[in-house]
Specification:
Strand order of the largest sheet: 4-5-6-7
Distance between the termini: 28 Å
Order of helices and strands: EHHEHEHEEEEHHHHHH
Length: 292
């Protein structure tokens, strides 16, 4: 059985006057408080397009990891916690829920970054270490996974690697829970939508997309331009320029969504050759294209 997760650093605030202070909240109470705030953020995803992933069964099963108040003394709950960090983990149930596992991690971690940047995780008796400035915006630009939609619902798209075909040798473009997404089963609109995710590495889930819009991010989706940009990068003519852009993108503080100057140089080079792609779509494309 596989799993994935993240942890957040915490610090207990010393009591200046223990006699006058009520009982401090326990680690379990803090864990439940933080997960409750994250879960509230995820509530906006509860809809038909996420029925497979955001099912009450999967969500509730994973949420049990934090444990109940009744089980505080029995060690109930799988998620780890200590005086220095809280853990959040998600399982794939022997490979049957791979999409749900990665999607829940993606959503929960992004929601945490948003809350931590916003000061929305304050808790009595504890300090939850703020995230690095720009971490939330970075997660929206350079997502850990690229999710897209077909008529069957959401899927995790196989991000294309340089020098490799768009679909694998079995014709798969992505996967869901206990199912593969076959290129041959998709209509033209679905193919365009998933190819965009595969080429750019940009997540199009209903969590990331509206959040990018609220940040005023240029979020056009033009698969023709994405193909053109990818093909130009594949020539290797300006590989050194692309590598410089990738390094700069990785080091950039994404509080400034304009991106680094090196990205703008590559953007302009591509635009001069007819491949006009938004800087943020290019940022995620060049990050995954030059990795191989």
């Amino acid at each position: 059985m596989g799993g994935i997760g993240f942890s957040i650093p915490i610090t207990r605030i010393p009591m200046l006057n223990p006699i006058a202070k009520e009982r401090p909240i326990s680690l379990l109470e803090l864990h439940r408080h933080v997960w409750g705030a994250i879960a509230d953020e995820l509530g906006e995803l509860d809809g038909d397009r996420h029925a497979e992933t955001f099912s009450s069964y999967y969500f509730d099963t994973q949420s049990e990891g934090v444990g109940s108040m009744e089980g505080e003394d029995s060690g109930e709950g799988e998620w780890e916690r200590s005086e220095t960090e809280l853990g959040f983990s998600f399982r794939d149930f022997a490979g049957c829920c791979s999409l749900s596992m990665y999607a829940m991690y993606h959503w929960a971690h992004t929601a945490y970054l948003d809350l931590a940047c916003d000061g929305g995780l304050d808790a009595p008796d504890w300090t939850i270490t703020p995230t690095t400035p720009g971490a939330y915006k970075r997660a929206l630009v350079l997502s850990s996974d690229a999710f897209g939609y077909t008529r069957a619902g959401m899927c995790n798209v196989n991000v294309r690697a340089s020098g490799q075909p768009l679909v694998d040798e079995d014709g798969h473009i992505g996967y869901g829970d206990s199912r593969n997404v076959l290129w041959s089963d998709l209509d033209d609109a679905e193919r365009d939508a998933l190819e965009w995710c595969a080429l750019t590495g940009q997540c199009r889930c209903d969590f990331c997309t509206p959040r990018r819009a609220r940040l005023g991010v240029e979020d056009t989706q033009d698969v023709v331009m994405a193909r053109a940009a990818w093909n130009l990068l594949e020539t290797g003519e300006q590989r050194s320029l692309a590598l410089q852009a990738r390094t700069a993108v990785g080091a950039w503080n994404w509080t400034d969504l304009g991106g680094p100057p090196e990205l703008s140089v590559l953007h302009d080079w591509l635009a001069e050759r007819g491949a006009i792609l938004s800087r943020l779509a290019l940022a995620s494309m060049v990050s995954q294209h030059t990795r191989s």
